[in-house]
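Lab channel / #folding
Pinned by the channel admin:
"Please post every new chain as: sequence first, then the structure tokens as a reply. Keep commentary short and put observations after the output so the thread stays searchable."

First post following the new format, from NK:
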Amino acid sequence: MSLTQRFTARRARAALVTTVAAGAGVAGMLGMSGIAQASTAGHVPPGWVVIDTCTGVSGNVTYSPGLEKKNRSVQAVLTGTTSGCSDIFNGAISGTGTITAVMSGTANANAENFSGTFTINWPAGSGFNPSNGNLTVTEANGLETVSGSVTSGFDTGTALAWQYVITGHTGRTGTKKGITAQTYTNTQSLNLSRNEG
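Reply from TO:
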């Protein structure tokens, strides 16, 4: 479904867009700095438009078994709170939402390669249904990069992208349990984008 068709489907809402421009052009018309930031950061390729964004994401990740110095198979559960959310059609969304991801893969205390499923619960005031999909999380030089796609619910067919860094942990390597949990905060907005190119 094109951006214009999505606009028509949502015309009962307050219309913020009367013409469609690509990428940061839309951000300029709407005054949504998160969209412009995502475009310049390289996470929204030419022809892609950010439909929904949250500028703040923080929470924790739990691991079973705990992370050690050497690679091992690990199950991980990521939970977080989203804030500063905006929608291309309705602008800023007050309140906070949540994100949850259930993942598995190979990981150690310094690197990971996970895949799994996620659910974004949007702030209650948005009226949006949850967004569900698949994602991957990889780490390089301490930066966690999340990518994926929404497969059901609100914004089906959009691409997910955001980044975060670890801010703390529970446990340590070389012990019976290893590192069992980490806290994180985002360095790049959580963006759901659609290819309109």
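NK: The beta strands are 48-67, 72-87, 91-93, 97-107, 112-121, 131-140, 143-153, 159-171, 179-195.
TO: also worth noting, Helices lie at 3-9, 24-30, 33-40.
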